[in-house]
Amino acid sequence: MSVASPVDETAESTQPPQEPLPLRMRPDLVVRTEVYEGRTCYIIKDPIGLRYFRFDREEHRLLSMLDGKRTAEQIVERMNAEFRPQQFQLEDVARFAQQLLQLGLVVTIVPGVGDALYEAREQRKRQKRISTFTNFLYIKLPGFDPERLLSWMYPRVSFLFSTTGVALTLLLWLAAGLLVTLNYDQFRSRPELLQFHTFFNVHNVFWLWVAVGISKILHEFGHGLTCKHFKGECHDMGVLFLVFTPCLYCNVSDSWMTGSRWARIWISAAGMYVEITLASIAVFAWWLTEPGIIHNIAFAMMAVCSFNTLLVNGNPLLRYDGYYVMTDLLHVPNLMQKSSELVRHLIFRHALGIDIPAPAFLPERRRLLFVTYAVLAYLYRLVLVVVISWFLYRFLEPYKLGVISKILGAAGLGLTVVMPLWKTVSFVAHQDNVGEIVTGPKFIRTIVILAIAVAAFGWLPVPHRVESVASVEYRDAVPVYATVAGYLKDIRVEPGQRVEEGDVIAVLDNEPLEDEIAELEHRLRVADIRIQTAIALDREQDRQALEVSVRQTREMLETRKQQLSELTVKAPRSGIVIPATARPADAGIGTSELASTHPLKSENQNRYLHRNTLLCEIGPSSDFDAVLLIDQSEMEFVDDDQHVWLKLDAAPDVTLTGSTESVGVDRATTVPTPLSNRVGGELATVSEDGMTDTPVSPHYQVRVRLDDSDQLDVDGVLRHGNRGKARVDCGTWTCWQWLARTFNQVFQM
Fold it and tell me: What is the pLDDT of residue 597?
């Protein structure tokens, strides 16, 4: 474990060699001995600051000799005698003493040092606050001391730490794995897995938050209780926001005081152990329950715990549980810090030509391993920022909030890419010999190589794809609506039946409409009598007024008779009857009283149909097209005869192909029902009448003619109403063009 670099403000604390060093090791420090790779080291605990340090034998010995009585010369003489053939200098002792003072491991009575240390501490606190807001995907808030709570909980759950408890847990893991393996096809055919990406939408975000919250709370209690099991202490637990989701954190740094490497490994792995157990329980809950609250929470828990363990917590490239397990297995504490500092030192020395002293803790052996780890960890963090930003974009874009994910992604990339570059430039600029550095051959060579690499990257061609939601429809199908509300009295056709133009599809009954027609006819008869009376009495003014009223009544009567005739719904063309796309019974008022979501099913007989209820569609053949709804910001890139790839939610392993043939020039006023977010689709829509869906943001319809060969290959997959995602091939862009467009979209330029 390394110590920090010295601060200049405390340089006065080191007195001339003839006088005793006014520094004394704190008597309350707790020291434990560890063995790493055959070498003895010392773990030192600061019981007040709850900080832990790892010292080599030499560092610990030097610390123990700081008693306020020995001079620096005496300490150097003793160190040289005890650790031959190593040779220590007065400067080494002075530098190390300054570091110990900064870390608070020694006390002093030198005037002014306290003010300098206080200012240094305030500076660290300011940096920590800034870090809290810059690392917006991981915001950690102050917590509480959970020691009493954990001490109360441990006896009540100690059975789980016994051999029997662990064995039963492993059996649970095995049973869940066997359940998935033996029923893989059935698992895979479940709607949540067939349409996995659509599960992560605004309707299910609450269940995802619940799953993340529960799993993270139990995860952290797993760490804390395991630390108690191995006689450790836990004095810090609190709330953090992980990707804006409230979670818990638990500081188990006291695992260093257990004296056992395997105890630390168990404590580090406890959170993953808990999450795998939760995922196993969730597998059974999801398998055994019907769709509902428990079913949704179980699926969310299964997904969150599995992916979180594999991609985040269990990944040693991130500083989470898997990282600490690996560092203990490899006997390399502070692997990430050492790797990063080593790469930084090598860049400064060999790429920029800056000759700086190497920190004392830099590894001398296995340097290739450290450099490889640093590079892989950096690249993985970069990929993770991109993936999280992409996930947020897919989640927010249907609601026209994609710019938020772009801003967050840009900020994340700025912290990952721009900030290290800025720190490097700032470091170079503050060097006394900055002129010699920037004109040196190493610096110039590095800048030229970077410039060429950036330019080459910028001109690299990348495919330009426009993505959109899509639904499958019969080619040239015509919708058939119940244009007048009424009770469904008679159903004359069945799905798949061929009809001719003018054939009756269904008959509705509307008694209030018939009564209104009878009333209007009665009013006309009465009006005719009154007109004849007015003529007989030579009341010209009354006659004219009555004739105006009669004309209005006749117009209303004609309208009502037309509506009455429309209660007999007829086929507008010859073709095959296609059932209306299913929609949930609560999707709108138009289906609220239907027994079945397909209006022409027999169980809907005598049910009330609201105006504009879609009864069916009639298509001339069994060929299919895909209908794409493309955002207006992407329409300028879409044209006729462009290649299209289509993946349906019902068959995610099958890729259909086709080409655009009808690119809309007018804004789409309606949306195919399967694409609406009201029925689980991804497109945000509104509905004024409860039946027709209108996109919230401007979209344009593009029709894609699917290749016949594909339709033959996936017979049974292509069905009217199936939805999916499409990609339109719009040629290629350079990276510069892609970056420029992304920048313009983010800042609306």
Answer: 60
* Per-position DSSP letters for 114-166, written without gaps between them: HHHHHHHHHHHHHHHHHHHHHSTTEEE---B--HHHHHHHHHHHGGGGSHHHH
Q: What token pair was written down for 390?
A: 């992409």
Q: What is the DSSP string of 249-316?
A: EE--GGGGGG--HHHHHHHHHHHHHHHHHHHHHHHHHHHHS-SSHHHHHHHHHHHHHHHIIIIIIT-T
Residue 416 and residue 379 in contact, taking contact as beta carbons nearer than 8 Å? no
Contact predicate 413/381, CB 8 Å: no
- What three-state secondary structure class fits 729? strand
d(CA 144, CA 741): 47
Largest Cα separation within the chain, whole Å, is 141
User: Are 557 and 564 in contact, with CB atoms under 8 Å apart?
Assistant: no
Q: How far is the C-alpha of 691 from the C-alpha of 152, rounded, in Å? A: 57
* Pairwise CA distance, residues 414 & 407, whole Å: 10
Q: In this structure, are residues 230 and 266 in contact, taking their beta carbons and an 8 Å threshold?
A: yes
* Residues facing residue 70 across a β-bridge: none
Residues 649 and 574: their CA atoms lie apart, in Å, by: 31
Tokens standing for residue 224: 């804390």
Distance CA 504, CA 507 (A): 8
**CA pair distance 287, 186, nearest whole angstrom:** 10
Long-range contacts of 387-394 (CB under 8 A, 24+ apart): 388/137, 388/243, 388/412, 391/200, 394/197, 394/200
> Given 3-state DSSP classes, what are the helix, strand and coil percentages for the chain, each rounded to the nearest 5?
50, 20, 30
Q: Which H, E and C letters describe 532-566, residue by residue? A: HHHHHCCCHHHHHHHHHHHHHHHHHHHHHHHHHHH
Of 390, 404, 399, the C-alpha closest to 745 is 404
Specify the pLDDT at position 13: 42
pLDDT score at 349: 82
Single out the residue of 83, 104, 97 nearest to residue 40, CA to CA.
Answer: 83
Residue 508's φ and ψ, nearest 5 degrees, are -110, 160
Dihedral over Cα of 444, 449, 451, 452: its sign: positive
- Which residue is it, tokens 């300011």? 126
Closest among 316, 307, 375 to 340, alpha carbons compared: 375
Please report, for residues 115, 466, 470, 735, 736, the alpha-carbon distance to residue 628 in angstroms, rounded to integers and kept in the order given.
Answer: 68, 11, 4, 26, 28
d(CA 95, CA 62): 12
The amino acid present at 229, given as its one-letter code, is: H
For residue 559, give both structure tokens.
């309208």
Amino acid at 475: R
pLDDT at 163: 94
Edge-to-edge order in the sheet of strand 575-579: 478-482, 613-619, 575-579, 498-499
Q: Per-10-residue mean pLDDT for the chain, 749 residues long?
A: 38 52 87 78 85 87 88 89 86 86 81 62 65 63 87 93 95 94 81 60 71 88 94 86 71 85 92 94 91 85 86 86 89 84 84 73 76 91 84 71 75 80 81 76 85 87 89 84 90 88 92 90 87 83 84 89 92 86 45 61 84 84 83 87 88 84 80 78 74 80 79 61 88 86 66
Rounded Cα distance between 511 and 567, Å, is 11
**Contact between residue 569 and residue 480 where contact means Cβ atoms under 8 Å apart:** yes
What's this model's pTM, rounded to 2 decimal places?
0.64
- Residue keyed to tokens 């008693």: 67
Can you say whether residue 722 is alpha, beta or left, with left for phi > 0 and alpha for psi between -120 and 50 degrees? beta
